[in-house]
Specification:
Residues 230-250 are annotated as: Disordered. The chain is of the alpha+beta class. The protein contains 9 helices and 15 strands.
Length: 288
């Protein structure tokens, strides 16, 4: 990475951490000691490398940053909090480790919220005033890893948390999504820590293919050639059958996001239902 690009990337992440929102071009230029006119061309390189996502088509946003992976600009209905600060950044808990961080998520129609509490190597999931087994809980990613960077914001916004693998297997076809990757919550957290813990640091560099291979194998994940090259994988096609199982694929990046897309869910006899039917895209915690 060129030194000027590294400097801009570093200042971008530091601004997000301190201000809990993305900088404008002028703010990023001032922090980096550059002219505002230099920022757009500098940002294009990390976007090509799938480090950030820029707004397109004359966006009305005051910032060029649609996403600085792992920070999305558009609000999503979960909060990662640490002390008095809070962010909409699903993988941030790993970056804040070993400090305690709480991921809180809910909707206006839900009397209770889900809390994922992380501190060091300890992970807890609290739902409806009871603690769920982290060994049973799992995360479903609705897009296979080989196509994540075709629309990374969609990927991050549709990750779902389940209390069992069986629940995760039922969800995609029920809600009209592709079946992608199912990881245990413990594996997802281990992957998140390995991937994000130092991403805010100045000397951060992306992992090599060999590093990724070793990481996946250490977590018991399957290594595929497509999962090791983000630039190449971004050009691959989505699966044609949304109900096909893709459990043999691995992910190259991890965001433990909790997403609510409908405020009309009700719980009846341990089954979630919604009057929007197939128009609804699910909630953050899906019951079996």
């Amino acid at each position: 990475m060129k030194e000027v690009t590294r400097k801009v990337r570093y200042e971008l992440f530091q601004f997000y951490l301190q201000e809990c929102c993305p900088p404008t071009e002028d703010e990023l230029a001032k922090l980096s000691g550059l002219g505002s006119c230099e920022i757009p061309s500098i940002l294009r390189k990390p976007e090509e490398e799938h480090r950030i996502v820029l707004y397109k088509h004359e966006s009305c946003a005051p910032t060029p940053m649609a996403m600085a992976h792992l920070f999305p600009h558009l609000p999503i209905p979960f909060i990662v909090s640490e002390g008095e600060r809070s962010w909409c950044a699903p993988g941030l808990a790993a970056m804040l480790a070993p400090d305690k961080a709480i991921i809180s998520v809910g909707s206006g129609s839900m009397a209770q919220e889900v809390q994922v509490v992380v501190q060091g190597d300890e992970l807890k999931v609290i739902y409806l005033h009871r603690e769920l087994s982290t060994s049973d809980c799992c995360a479903h990613f609705s897009v296979p890893p080989s196509t994540w960077w075709r629309d990374v914001r969609f990927v991050c916004g549709t990750i779902q948390l389940f209390k069992s693998k069986q629940g995760a297997q039922k969800w995609p076809q029920k809600r009209g999504f592709h079946t992608g990757e199912i990881l245990s919550l413990e594996t997802a957290w281990s992957l998140s820590k390995a991937w994000y813990h130092n991403k805010h640091q100045y000397d951060y560099d992306r992992k090599s293919a060999a590093d990724v291979t070793e990481l996946y194998r250490s977590l018991g994940m399957t290594v595929t050639s497509g999962s090791l090259d983000m630039a190449q994988s971004a050009r691959k096609e989505l699966p044609s059958n949304r109900s096909s199982q893709r459990s043999g694929q691995s992910m190259e990046d991890q965001l433990l996001a909790l997403k609510v897309t409908c405020g009309q869910h009700i719980l009846h006899d341990d089954e979630w239902s919604c009057d929007q039917g197939r128009e609804c895209h699910g909630l953050n915690m899906t019951e079996d």
